[in-house]
């Protein structure tokens, strides 16, 4: 009896393994030969000794596919294919994904869909040759606010710069950290005036918390696994909605972007709660990256006294007591600019997502309508064939020695195509001012022993967050030499 059972078990095991192997050989070896126009599928088990999985599997860097939780998605790996995806905006778009995110955030399917349909009668479409959907109009409003011109100058010179100067004026011994987790947030104040933070002093703390849990929304985790995310989301949405309930004359300092987006959604009949939900995605894009870039810049600078001194000398002509010449920082500080670009190269490692509206050929492969495609920026920014050996090491003078690299198609910290980041001018100018103020006011010593590690496990759009607990402790000594 025992022998019979053992024999039966052996046969079952043999059949299972044989079926699995046959299926695997068919799916990953034979099938791709019959359908060479389809992207190869990444096998689940890949022998990879010292080489990375991708190098082993696809030295040609053609697009490939992967099946995750039953969904097949494509991955574009070469700079050319990533660019071709951006150029194919008629057939490959972010919109279906953005629409799903609005539903995940709490809008009904109809409300979310409304934002992605053209409304010819809307006042913003009157006399427009090419009417736009509300979601595209949001982006137009960002461009109006953020592209070089009077509105950007007002945002930067009227609010952000004075605020950075004030925040870096630490009363002796009073401040626990350069980058606060609580208290005032410079960009929130620039967009909403002082009122928002007076009403919700914990808003930046809530937002920092949101950054830790937002991946649960991106991955649409069920509510029983995402209670913390739902709580902080409700706090943030609630704060925006309550702010919008204030009469306009009680919030006179808000940026035109906020007023315009509210007007537009009210015209469509949205109430404060719905506007708050829509506004939140923009609140996230506006606030989510600059502080992280400032963090990584500070972390790198604090490790390298020679670099710190070089940048300090370069920015010195721009710094005076109580003011700063930010045009000088943008135009006459190539070492600072190179450091910012190199830090962006190392820290913008997220993958951008798109969906195929129509079947499209990318990199010689036919990508099917309805599927998603990921554009992993990390693959471009850490490509040894472009950046040389050790692409994961900071080389602060890289862009100074070779300024053309800033235009290389493998350098994409701001994304590309129609969705190129409209906040890039504001972000760069803010971090320039931050670094110049910090270095000119203080001698910096570092107290923590380890360099912070990026938290790649938490998908975050743009700059990578640092791991919880990996804060950088600095010792700041006033220099007192500014005139
Ligand atoms: C270090 C700072 C920043 C980095 C690295 C960054 C990076 C990016 C990237 C990679 C994208 C493309 C996303 C995609 O195509 O899927 C993007 C889009 C966007 N960014 Fe930024 N960003 C930064 C700061 C800002 C700021 C300060 C604002 C606003 C004040 C902003 C507003 C936006 C908006 C609205 C989009 C969407 C554009 C569109 O869909 O057309 N960003 N950003």
From TrEMBL:
It comes from the Eukaryota. GO terms for molecular function: heme binding; iron ion binding; oxidoreductase activity, acting on paired donors, with incorporation or reduction of molecular oxygen; steroid hydroxylase activity. Pfam families: p450 (PF00067). Heme binds at residue 421. Keywords: Heme, Iron, Metal-binding, Monooxygenase, Oxidoreductase. PROSITE patterns: CYTOCHROME_P450 (PS00086). Its cofactor is heme. Belongs to the cytochrome P450 family. This is Cytochrome P450. The lineage of its organism: Eukaryota, Fungi, Dikarya, Ascomycota, Pezizomycotina.
């Amino acid at each position: 009896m025992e022998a019979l059972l053992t024999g039966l078990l052996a046969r079952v095991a043999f059949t299972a393994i044989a079926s699995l192997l046959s299926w695997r050989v068919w799916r990953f070896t034979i099938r791709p030969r019959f359908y060479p126009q389809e992207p190869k599928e990444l096998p689940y088990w890949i022998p990879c000794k010292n080489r990375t999985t991708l190098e082993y599997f696809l030295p040609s860097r053609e697009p490939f596919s992967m099946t995750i939780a039953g969904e097949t998605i494509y991955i574009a790996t070469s700079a050319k294919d990533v660019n071709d995806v951006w150029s194919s905006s008629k057939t490959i778009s972010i919109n279906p994904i953005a629409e799903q995110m609005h539903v995940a955030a709490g809008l009904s399917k109809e409300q979310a869909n409304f934002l992605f349909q053209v409304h010819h009668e809307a006042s913003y479409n009157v006399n427009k040759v090419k009417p736009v959907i509300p979601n595209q109009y949001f982006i137009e409003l960002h461009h109006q606010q953020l592209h070089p011109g009077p509105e950007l100058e007002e945002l930067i010179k009227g609010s952000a710069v004075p605020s950075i100067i004030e925040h870096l004026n630490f009363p002796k011994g009073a401040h626990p950290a350069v980058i606060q987790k609580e208290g005032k947030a410079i960009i929130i104040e620039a967009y909403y005036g002082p009122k928002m933070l007076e009403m919700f002093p914990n808003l930046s703390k809530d937002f920092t918390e949101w950054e830790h849990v937002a991946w649960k929304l991106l991955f649409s985790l069920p509510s029983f696994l995402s209670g913390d995310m739902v709580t902080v989301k409700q706090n943030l949405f609630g704060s925006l909605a309550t702010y919008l309930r204030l009469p306009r004359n009680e919030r006179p300092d808000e940026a035109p972007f906020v007023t315009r987006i509210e007007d537009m959604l009210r015209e469509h009949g949205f109430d404060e709660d719905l506007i708050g939900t829509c506004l939140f995605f923009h609140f996230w894009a506006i606030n989510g990256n600059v502080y992280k870039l400032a963090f990584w810049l500070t972390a790198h600078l604090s490790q390298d006294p020679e670099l710190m001194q070089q940048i300090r000398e370069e920015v010195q002509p721009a710094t005076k007591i109580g003011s700063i010449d930010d045009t000088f920082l943008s135009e006459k500080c190539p070492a600072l600019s190179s450091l910012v670009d190199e830090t962006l190269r190392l820290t913008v490692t997220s993958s951008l997502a798109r969906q195929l509206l129509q079947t499209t050929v990318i990199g010689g492969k036919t990508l099917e309508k309805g599927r998603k495609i990921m554009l992993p920026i990390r693959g471009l920014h850490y490509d040894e064939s472009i950046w040389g050996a050790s692409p994961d090491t900071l080389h602060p003078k890289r862009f100074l020695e070779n300024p053309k690299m800033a235009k290389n198609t493998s350098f994409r910290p701001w994304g590309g195509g129609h969705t190129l980041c409209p906040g890039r001018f504001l972000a760069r100018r803010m971090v320039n001012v931050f670094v110049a103020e910090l270095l000119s006011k203080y001698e910096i010593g570092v107290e923590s022993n380890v360099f912070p590690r990026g938290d790649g496990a938490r998908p975050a759009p743009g700059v990578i967050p640092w791991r919880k607990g990996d804060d950088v402790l600095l010792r700041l000594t006033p220099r007192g030499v500014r005139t």
